[in-house]
Amino acid sequence: MTDAYAGLLRRMAAMRGCDRMLSGVRPVSMTEHLDAVRATLAPDSLPDFYGEGGPVEALELRVAELLGTEAAVFFPTGTMAQQVAIRYGAELTGRTTVGLHPLSHLVLHERDAYAVLGGLRAVRTTTAPRNPTAGEVAELAEPIGTLLLELPLRDAGFVLPTWDELVAVVAAARAAGARVHLDGARLWESTPRLGHPAAAVAGLFDSTYVSFYKSLGGISGAALAGEAGLIRYAREWRHRYGGTLFQQWPAAAAGLVGLDRELPRLPGYVAHATAVAAALAGLPGARVYPTPPHTHQFRLWLPYPADRLNAANLALAEEERAWFVGGWQDTEVPGLAMAEVTVAAPALDLDATQVADLGGRFLRRLAAT
């Protein structure tokens, strides 16, 4: 066991023992995951086989209905789903260029798979910490086959455009002859600020990827949704990439559980995030962005080194059964660290006064270290 994994197990055990949690959710054991899945299955339910039938097919139909698309296909990972989507755009348009933000998931977290595996080339859409504008897309120096938009843009602070800005940038891409793909890993919680349901958002795009674990609490897995031709193509390339597993019913069934249980709760998390962010912004030395949050996730900075913040948070959890915020990372400014705050079900039990009190307890423990 590596030191990193041992540290992860310790943090998970501490979180499971907490009575109060501000950021994140209580980690779920394998047994608890299986119990939740088992409760949704009929006694004679049969699994999927190589992507056909069972919970996989049920999940694909459910996603296509939610997003208003002709079809959807299950993928083991979002990385694989997105590689297939932009490959399809390149083949249809004859352009191997993809409009990408330098903070997008494809650039920062997929080890250049779009270039190494797909033979595609990135065209930077903007350097601003937000999605590109219609004007920026219209003025790109070279044509692109696909414009990829990540909603929200996680590594810029979970930021979203307005609905009108989104409509305009999609129109600008189409006017330039490009297809438009949505990295919608967090689409589910983006709809309150956009003011339109998921189907309306997906309807702007040629293809949409959604995740089943980032906000829905699933085990793993993703779906790619769009017109029938794309989905036929995606099934072929999923097989070529090694993504057509013998059976994937546990992940698919957990995805269905998430759509039933967590999806209806997300608007409440987004609404509560505004109160949580305001309370955290009142802590000494704290900074919150964006204000108010665009989804149920946002960034928090405190003027301390990350290792001290993480140690104080773990001690608070283990000794006082309260979890503040974990996952602190040092920034380019010495002595200033940043963490991502996720307002989920446990945080609904904390009003603004309780959030401020928990933050004060955390800072007092930090000062004593």
Describe the structure.
Residues 48-291 form the Aromatic amino acid beta-eliminating lyase/threonine aldolase domain. It comes from Micromonospora rubida. Pfam families: Beta_elim_lyase. This protein has 369 residues and is of the alpha/beta class. The chain has helices spanning 3-16, 30-38, 54-67, 78-93, 105-108, 113-116, 134-138, 163-175, 191-194, 198-202, 228-240, 249-261, 266-281, 306-320, 352-368, and strands spanning 20-21, 71-75, 97-100, 121-124, 146-150, 179-184, 207-211, 222-226, 287-289, 297-302, 322-323, 329-330, 337-342. It folds into 2 domains: 3-27 and 264-368, Aspartate Aminotransferase, domain 1, CATH 3.90.1150; 40-261, Type I PLP-dependent aspartate aminotransferase-like (Major domain) (Aspartate Aminotransferase, domain 2), CATH 3.40.640. It contains 15 helices and 13 strands. Strands 2-8-7-6-5-3-4 form a 7-stranded mixed beta sheet, sandwiched between helices. Strands 9-10-13-12 form a 4-stranded antiparallel beta sheet, with helices on one face. A hairpin with a 7-residue loop joins strand 9 (287-289) and strand 10 (297-302). Helix 14 packs across helix 15.
Tell me the CATH superfamily of the largest domain: Type I PLP-dependent aspartate aminotransferase-like (Major domain)
> Could you report the average pLDDT, rounded to the nearest whole number?
96
CATH topology of the largest domain: Aspartate Aminotransferase, domain 2
Strands, total number: 13
Distance between the termini: 29 Å
Per the principal axes of the C-alpha atoms, what is the gross shape? globular
- Structural domain tally: 2
- Strand content is 5-15%
